[in-house]
């Protein structure tokens, strides 16, 4: 398992990904997440899924919610995101 210091810097502090995967993502990376699955569905769960399913195109949504990391296996159609590794994109600063 990679050490946390091998991860991206602290300036990238919040991620959006499928809410089912968010709890282990936080445990492994130490990064905050936009939404994670709770005992009951939250409005942010559906917002996260919609954003990812729509190609992660809404940069204003990312900025408004302080999100700088996108983790998805889906297609990314946002020119403001830079692919840094398979399934991992960072919001351009």
Outline type? globular
Task: Identify low-pLDDT runs.
Answer: none
Enumerate the strands of the largest sheet in spatial order, edge to edge or round the barrel.
2-1-3-5-4
* Gyration radius from CA atoms, angstroms: 12 Å
**Which class of secondary structure composition applies to the elements?**
alpha/beta
Tell me the helix content. Answer: 25-40%
The overall average pLDDT, rounded, is: 90
Distance between the termini: 28 Å
The H-and-E topology, N to C, reads as EHEHHEEE
List the total number of helices.
Answer: 3
Q: What amount of the residues lies in strands?
A: 15-25%
Describe this structure in words.
The termini are far apart. The chain has helices at residues 22-29, 43-53, 59-64; strands at residues 14-16, 32-33, 69-71, 81-85, 88-91. By secondary structure, the chain is α/β, with parallel strands linked by helices. The protein has one domain (7-91). Strand 1, helix 1 and strand 2 form a beta-alpha-beta unit. The protein is globular. The mean pLDDT is 90. A five-stranded mixed sheet has the order 2-1-3-5-4, covered by helices on one side.
């Amino acid at each position: 398992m990679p050490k946390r210091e091998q991860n991206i810097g602290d300036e990238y502090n919040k991620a959006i990904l499928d809410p089912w995967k968010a709890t282990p993502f936080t445990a492994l990376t130490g990064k905050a997440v936009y939404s994670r699955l709770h005992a009951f569905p939250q409005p942010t769960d559906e917002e996260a899924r919609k954003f990812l399913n729509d190609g992660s195109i809404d940069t204003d949504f990312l900025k408004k919610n302080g999100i700088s990391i996108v983790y998805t296996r889906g297609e990314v159609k946002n020119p403001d995101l830079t692919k840094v590794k398979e399934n991992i994109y960072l919001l351009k600063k």
